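Forwarding the complex inputs:
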Amino acid sequence: MHYGDASIRRAVPLAMALLSISAPKTIILESLSKYSHDHDAGVAMSAILALGLIGAGTNNSRLAIILRSLASYYSRDGQLLFVVRFAQGLLHAGKGILNLSPLHAHKSLLCKPSLMALLSICSIFLSLGPELLVCKFPYLLFLVVPALYPRFLMTVDANTLEPLNVSVRVGQAVDVVGQAGRPKTITGFQTHATPVILSYSERAELATEAYTALSPILEGVVLLESVPQ
Amino acid sequence: MVVVEVVIFVCLFHQLKFTSPPPPYSYHIALLCNVASIGLMHLWNVEVALSHLDKFLESTDSHVKAGALLAVGIVSCNVENEAEPAMALLSESLFESPDNTIRACATLGLGIAYIGTRKEFLLPVLLPLLDISEDAPPNMELIGLASLSLGLIFGGSCHSEIASSIIQTLMSLEGRQLDDPFAQLIVLGLSFLFIGRSSEYNFDEKNEGEDMIAVVLESIQVLPNLSLVKGAESLIQMMSYAGSGNVLKIQEIAAATCQPQHTEPINDTVATTEAAEPTEETMRPANSSQSELNSSQSDEKHHELFKPYSVVALAAIALGEEIGTEMSFRLLGHLVRRRIF
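Prediction (whole assembly, two chains):
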């Protein structure tokens, strides 16, 4: 972080965050927490905002510790502290049931409005500059709202549209593309009753024979139909 | 009124108690943001939120009212409501209020409330904001937000009427107004119209998106502000390929990001000499000795915006694809460490 064009260095943390929105992978977390102590306040602010974006709605405890220590480190600088508080707010968005990821349906589809919201935050940060954004136009940060979406699985009856409580297995997703037979799509699963929260890289499958899902992708709101005995 | 006092009290308390350094924003902005946060607290619950916001919408304080309008936009985001309460409330104050803060927040609220919906009834509300009257100096903040909102609402639609209005606005602005940071927002709104419309995505033979992007890129070339043009090119490229995972495009952008700077800092001469004629601006790249002198200053002022946009574009194009994401992450690490002359 000693070389490189000043304007490029400000953009790099935001670009890194875009690559893993609401998915605090260790390698990205490490680099961003390094940049968050940069001597250029602009780079530090963009790194802290990026930390908030990658942890948005995850309640990640490691990231929470990093942000708390940043808050005490920058306790004398109003602008940086504001960005730290914003990142902390994003981290605990909806007490951990919301996320900002524009990807859905097993990360195969891209939600364009959500992506527009995230890209507008990044572009506004770069074009207005951190000082102007934080001091004069902090309300532009509300542009993050359209990207907020709950990361739950909720099941409803297909005929009555009443919520159903059925048991589902939730576990780490496994890539089974191109494998023969019917390989397991999740590993290390636990059984829960819906509604359940699915964290990043987790997937669900029905644990009961009494219902079939009308959608092949168990995410968001899913219609269930009971199987005749 | 009691609630307004409570909010004011909360703001003051916030200043005294929680942040030992003074907050970076002014008291009025804090008031605006606090009221707007009510929208976030009742997200997607329009009826309840409106009953809470009623008293703030009646407020005589322009910042409280602006915050309440933004809150109306926020709660209505991604919610379908046949009565269109956000449209009714926001467009009314947009037409009636002379206050710039209220108008700016109502514009932003409309953009947030109707993001991605492409509803045509918003055109007569938002398009007039792009018009520039001859007698009064243009309010760059309002124009920028109106363009941004139009871009958010009609994202990826390649709407020709909006595109031509935005370009018309850019043409009628003067050189110094184009240096304003909010001019970048106008361009951002323009680029949102083409999100995901590169040939990569289009399976039909006509490929209207690609043709229109070419026309738009052609027509913005005449703008006197070179850094704005470069920024716009970069943004439109980023948006049209966003999420496509196109490796060739990523390599092309990475190469452009590592190029040494050819372009000139625009503002330095404009600030000293009043004249900002287009002919003079376009001739400037030939004047290389001055460019080297000023290149360090331009870094400080961040007029050279196309490079940071290109960096974000790398991520925006690669996003969503496992291997591309890993490759771009490594590429970004190299960009940081590389010294660019």
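Residues 176 and 270 of chain B are 8 Å apart (CA to CA).
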